[in-house]
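Input for the complex:
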Amino acid sequence: METILFLTHPDAGKPALEALAAAQELGGQLIIGLFGAEVQTTANQWAGCGAAKFLGVIGNEFTTARYATDAAAAEALVKAAQATIVIAPATSRMNRILPGVAHRCGGRTDTHVTALTATSVTRWYYRQRMEAVLSRTQRPWFIALDPGCHAPASPAPGTATVTIVPVSLPSIRTTVTGVKSPEASQQTIRPDAPLLFVAGAGWTKKQPDGQPHVSEAADLILGFLNATQASLGSSKSLVDLSGEGQAVLPFMSHLNQIGQTGATPRHPKGLATCCHGEEPHVVGWRFINERRAINLDANCGWARGKADVLYVADAFAVIRKVNELLAGK
Amino acid sequence: MSTAFQVAVCGSIVPDPLQTLEPVTGPAGPALKNELMLPAVLDPWAWHALFEAAHLAKAHPGSKVYLVSVAPKAKLQQVMMTVGQKVPFELLAVDGPSSGFTEAAEIAPLLVETIKTIPGFDLNRLLVFGGWESASRGAGATLQIVGELLGITDQFQGVDQLTVGQDGALEILERIEGGRHQISRCAGAPAVLGWATGNLPEPPNNPQIGMANMRGIMPALQKAKPAKLTGAGVTFASVTLPKQQRQTKIVKDTPPDEIAREIVAWIQQ
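Predicted:
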């Protein structure tokens, strides 16, 4: 029987509950491993998850995400648990350390896993262009489950007994000094939003009057985002324009980019506007369930066969009206 | 005081993103159909890492950039014709597969062995760069193992910005959830930085740089040692293309007001 360690930091949120649910379904002996400044609160929230035991690494050194300390904590937990399978949520903090910790423990890692069973994992290769199911003989086997791929667990709260695991830390040369967030009005990436709105380079091109209307485009897009609380994605061509110093859409950065060299977010619905091109966009939309698109080309290679509905129309006019309707005008 | 870095940029080649890819199963496991015939490019995130490395080296006299690559050398030579025009670097090559189905745990030791051949290798001046993921395996695992093998525990992933202070300290912005960046300060080299896109545009072609690079690239390719990977321990049950083909409903010759009402109703469902 496999010994399954569910490994996470306490503030991993919904992705942690999703990965916990996947770990519960594997059927081995489940151990919870938590590291952070304080872990008891989370352990109590998960007390009824069916774990045989709870292990913890605590200390102020583990408050912030830092490779040296996080990897040392995770290594200690894996070794204390004598885990053969390690399941973790694919947060930025866990993704940073998991392959290194697997190396330290003599194991192997699979990241960006989208489904798992007791014997295999499913993950995508070549930027979401082909899907593989694979298994490994090496142990411990570290598996990072991508967010949005499993229904979250809802463990009963209670009082958990956490066994504290000692850690020997390396010399610490890195200090986390803060987090840089976009201004509240320009916070356009919302991973939990029900809708993804994708803007293409067409928003910056010349309109029927022969002039570009970038400022109006920015107002329309922000108006839509504010009204719907949608997350904003972008084609590569649009963010590249921004990166080249052109005054395009001030709230757009490479962080918004989806596709081959961008993100592949998961949202129930997606609305693409002024996007063209085929394969890279398909990649960015791999995990969008319901897809609609607005552009002027009825034969757009991207939309045909990839979107559910293609509106052949001027996105400026349509989004302007959508914003009015959403504002109740 | 300026710090002279040895910047090892780890990166391989991937099929051009516009190519249609099809998996096949061979005796050694999964591969791409006609893989050696497909046009290739330097992995996009490694590409960004290379620009950032060159930018850093230019700002810190005495620094040098090494592109460390495990790839089939004939394909690598083709890609270097383009990459070599962009920024100055020295190529350190290993003749091996660039397939996404190879194991990060097998590639990393090859990279480390090659990094250690840097003339005058000095761990205290070393910055290991690369993409935070590849466009082939997409695991985001190789650099961490490279760091572990080199004994480097200052590692950063999803890096968009690096600033080097007068004292050689590094200020690093890493992508985290929600479109935010974590800001870290590291005492200095050695460190591992897995780059996201960074902030630099693609440099223009520079024929002089191209000629200078090619003088080193060809000998590096000629002496690239062959590497054989085993893929031991992993079994692929299947590798398939997504089959989903949607029946797209085309709505045209419809007034914007009507389309807007339909979209609002859809959003609010």
